[in-house]
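Researcher: Let's continue the batch. This sequence belongs to Leucine-rich repeat-containing protein 14B, and it's 519 residues. Same format as the previous ones, please.
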Amino acid sequence: SATMKSLRFISAEAFVSNAEFARKNLGDVAHNLFPLLFKASYLLEQGEVIHDLVENWPLVDFNMGQLLGTTADYQEDLSHRTCSVCLESCLTGLRDYVLNHSSACVRRLKVVDLTGVKDVEVQFCKCKKTMGRWARTQLLSKLCLELLFYLQQRQCDPGIFKISIDVLIDLFVTERNYELVVQALLKKCYCPLKLCCVALRFDNLALQKFFYIIKITDPSLLVKLEIVHNVRLEMEHLEILFNSIHFPLLMSLTLPARTFDVRRFTATDEQTLTNIGEKMGEITQLTELSVSFSVLTGRIQKLLSPLKTPLKMLDVSNCSLNHADMTYLANSIHANHLEALDLSGHSIPDLYPSAFFKLLSHSSSVLRSLTLEDCNIQDNHVNMLILGLNSCQKLQEFKFLGNPLSSQALKHLFIFLCELPMLKNVEFPVPRDCYPIGITYPIDDASLCRFDYQKYETVAEELKLILLQANREDVKASTPLFGSYDAAVQETKNELGAYLMKSFKETLEKFTSSLNKIT
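Model: Same format as before. Here are the structure tokens for Leucine-rich repeat-containing protein 14B:
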């Protein structure tokens, strides 16, 4: 069992449960026991003990993912607990590791890796207060600047300035924390804690600020780049980005909605797209690409064929793909390597069923996640879908919200899904017969919640009973009406909302101004 604890771990829990006693006696603890005590303290949310453990860390590296992950003494993975008490104690402990340096004690710490922390929807920590990626970015930037301020103000031990610790972090930058992050990055060379950005996400940021921050983060270290909401990056800007900056380690790239729109392409734009494809081909590590909500009709081959490494993750949801695009994907080098695929927003059964099933067949031996939301999959397509999914024996996640399927068809599909041995997560639509007669698909936001809740609950219970009777309690089945949980959006939703309101107001003012000119 994952919750089984070794005697060592039980002893560690007993030691840290009395914070005052533990803090007083840390000096007598063998160095190799610090990781054990750290995980025990994290589990019990002993903030003060966590702080002191990090402040006196005796080892060369401090890797959050490894420390909180599955260990021989306690197999439960705690890396998804973004507990505010624990994380704040950890980061302030890191600052004080530097500040409370004395020449008498040897400081060995060289690398701190904070990238292993995972943001999830349900938190199990007692305090129920989380510290998401944005807040971690904010706090670490603040602590780095505080540290520099203290060092300038105080007569410090000269040994402090010899301390150099690489802090690997996933930064999340928005308009609200931009200035703070920029200051921390610009002063990195003077600070004993060196921010090393491994992954970078941008939301709600002016294009000029986006380009500036990407230059000062040291793009040669970047493994993941996400440019998501309200960053007005268009195709010509992407070409400038790739021409001016080299990303040798980049493995994952997410581009914002409407980066590409072939409906207004000129001959110059066609050349720009070719250049972008070639530049992406030079990023030899790239294996994950998301270009959702762009219009790429007939251009997928131009964008993807220069890639030297086969993609493992591809999100082309709502990209208006045509038959030629799907045929290319089915026959491309990527098909046999795709572990995650999102084709949402395409009427697959009507447009290219055979090409889609060929693609599914080629990727079936490795496919772990398949998303087919709003794909116009109806009752008469279910048998064909089952046939296609039958070879996907490694499938762990299947999302098909927004498809016009009846309760009966869903039950039929669920009986089959029980047979997929690795399946863990299913997101299924509200059955068509729970909505008023005459509802049209895709359902607009205004009508999305206008269904018979009681009938839905009955069907949902019947579907869960199918799983239960097949001994598949390990499968989570749900209907998140407004899409899957996004930790980043959840954390910055107020800023996102304010930005959208401002944008709407500006558009309205421009429209009113144009009307006034006409009249």
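Researcher: Any comment?
Model: Residues 330 and 359 are 4 Å apart (CA to CA).
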